[in-house]
Inverse folding.
């Protein structure tokens, strides 16, 4: 892949723990993600997903290896403060708890926070804020206070805040985890729209298998390593491997796995419900 | 129950006072307080009461709200009144005297002036500033007014950012306090009976989780802010920058005229004996 937007080479990271020792969290991560991709990242608690995300925009600095963003080596020692700001405007992040990432007491002021930090002209900030709020469908709430909004709405405001910096990539770190099914659907629709219509590269960290099925590519992490990487169908056919690292699989894959374990010839396991239904249909027809 | 507490009571509206620049309002508040404490004669006081009374309907804030805001001060008002009434020594015969207490004419007028002063102070600063200015405008105004101080390396921007983050998190933390209290009550905690010390002790199991969560929130917020390119006040622009308009000048002029009126009345009424 020549035009990889994100590329890591033997990336490793350890946190320093209290007594001066080191707590290794990521080992030798080699990863390439092209522009415009929609990648889901799965992994059990503590597998290093958030750490990987925070390395990409220099909230954390790697202890080994290299990271290239859009062709630039961000681990080089002469990164100036301006380079870091540039990098962070390219890679937006949306976190789990909507309450802890909104800064201002009014929705539109919050969306303006990023561009304001970048020193954008007031008229241009206004334009970006209006556009970002329209993209996430929150124009009506521009003058509201965040605490009057539902979880899904708050999370959409946080997404608007990231979009207003005109990023090329947005990392969602379990951004749907604290939401009810309605809020989840709202946020997932917004994410898919951004990926399709604005061609924003999406890294979606999640514990929800159905959300992972929406992606073009799924990366599975365990104990600081990438253990599976591929299109959802391919990844979810490794049911046993996924189970052994404490992850579930989509219901369709679970069903096909049980059937094949009980000696029913079902072919390749997939997470896709329609494909699964088709196979069952064929199977019944054959009999 | 704790949700009823409103801090920084702002009442949105469209009045002239709402549309003034927050910097003007901050300056007017100072000016108003100065005028209030300069007044030394009855006529000067009447002038100020007129000004304050006129500001209330102009601001569109209801009298009920004002009355409510004065209620917690009732004790202080009565206390100062009594103090002034009983302990002011005047010339001439006391108006009333029994046991060791003598009430003089001067004491009565002093007490009245003091009450008028306190009521005007609360009402005036309320309608000029706190009721008619949103918290964001207020912090923006303070930041801009204090901006010259950053030349001598005072962290003005950081201070303003801290204030606005605090204002942003008040509702969140209030909600959280409510939740923790309910959780503790469900475990049998009792916050409403027993001695003062017992009740104070019952607060500790609320404060500790509240602090822990506030620190965790602060940590997450800091990362989120960094992700959105926050790097201090340097090179930062604002979407809604503040603008002075003709309105600001006009209202300031009115206040200055009132100030001048008070000074003149001070000087001229003194001679004819209505001064204090
Ligand atoms: N600030 C920190 N200091 C020290 N160790 C940390 C810190 N943050 C995380 N860790 C450790 O690093 C490991 C990976 O954490 P990380 O947050 O990246 O996991 P994760 O995959 O995002 O998990 P989750 O699904 O729970 O969010 C964990 O073992 C955690 O204990
Ligand atoms: Mg995480």
């Amino acid at each position: 892949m020549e035009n990889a937007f994100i590329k890591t080479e033997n990336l490793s990271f350890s946190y320093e723990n209290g007594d001066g020792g080191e707590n290794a969290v990521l080992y030798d991560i080699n990863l390439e993600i092209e522009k415009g991709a929609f990648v889901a990242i799965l992994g059990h608690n503590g597998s290093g997903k958030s750490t990987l995300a925070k390395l990409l925009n220099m909230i954390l600095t790697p202890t080994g290896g290299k990271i290239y963003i859009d062709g630039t080596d961000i681990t080089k020692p002469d990164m100036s403060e301006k380079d870091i700001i540039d990098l962070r405007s390219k890679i937006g992040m949306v976190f789990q708890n909507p309450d802890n990432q909104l800064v201002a007491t009014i929705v539109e002021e919050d969306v303006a926070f990023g561009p304001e930090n970048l020193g954008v002209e007031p008229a241009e900030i206004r334009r970006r804020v209006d556009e970002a709020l329209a993209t996430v469908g929150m124009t009506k709430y521009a003058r509201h206070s965040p605490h009057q909004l539902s979880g899904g709405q708050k999370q959409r405001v946080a997404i608007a805040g990231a979009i207003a910096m005109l990023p090329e990539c947005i990392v969602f770190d379990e951004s749907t985890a604290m939401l009810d099914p309605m809020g989840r659907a709202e946020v997932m629709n917004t994410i898919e729209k951004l990926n399709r219509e604005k061609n924003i590269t999406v890294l979606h960290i999640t514990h929800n298998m159905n959300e992972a099925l929406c992606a073009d590519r799924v990366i599975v992490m365990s104990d600081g390593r990438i253990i599976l990487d591929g299109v959802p169908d391919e990844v979810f056919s490794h049911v046993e491997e996924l189970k052994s690292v404490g992850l579930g699989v989509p219901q369709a894959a679970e069903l096909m796995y049980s059937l094949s374990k009980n000696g029913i010839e079902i072919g390749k396991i997939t997470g896709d419900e329609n494909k699964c239904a088709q196979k069952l249909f064929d199977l019944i027809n054959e009999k | 129950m704790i949700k009823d507490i409103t801090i920084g009571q702002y009442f949105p509206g469209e009045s002239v006072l709402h549309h003034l620049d927050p910097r003007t309002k901050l300056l007017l508040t100072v000016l108003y307080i100065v005028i209030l404490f300069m007044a030394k004669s009855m006529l000067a006081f009447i002038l100020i009461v007129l000004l304050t009374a006129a500001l209330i309907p102009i601001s569109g804030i209801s009298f009920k709200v004002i009355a409510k805001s004065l209620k917690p001060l009732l004790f202080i008002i009565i206390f100062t009144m009594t103090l002034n009434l009983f302990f002011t020594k005047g010339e001439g015969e006391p108006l009333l005297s029994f046991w060791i207490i003598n009430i003089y004419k001067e004491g009565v007028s002093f007490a009245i002036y003091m009450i008028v002063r306190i009521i005007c102070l609360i009402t005036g600063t309320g309608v000029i500033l706190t009721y008619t200015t949103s918290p964001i405008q207020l912090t923006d105004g303070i930041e801009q007014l204090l901006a010259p101080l950053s030349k001598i390396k005072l962290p003005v921007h950081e201070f303003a950012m801290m204030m606005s983050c605090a204002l942003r998190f008040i509702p969140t933390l209030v909600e959280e306090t409510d939740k923790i209290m309910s959780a503790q009550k469900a475990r049998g905690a009792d916050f409403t009976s027993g001695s003062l010390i017992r009740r104070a002790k019952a607060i500790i199991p609320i404060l500790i989780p509240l602090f822990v969560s506030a620190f965790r929130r602060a940590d997450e917020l800091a990362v989120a802010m960094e992700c959105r390119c926050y790097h201090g006040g340097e090179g930062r622009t604002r979407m809604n920058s503040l603008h002075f308009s003709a309105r600001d000048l006009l209202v300031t002029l009115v206040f200055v005229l009132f100030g001048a009126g008070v000074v003149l009345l001070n000087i001229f009424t003194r001679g004819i004996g209505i001064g204090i």
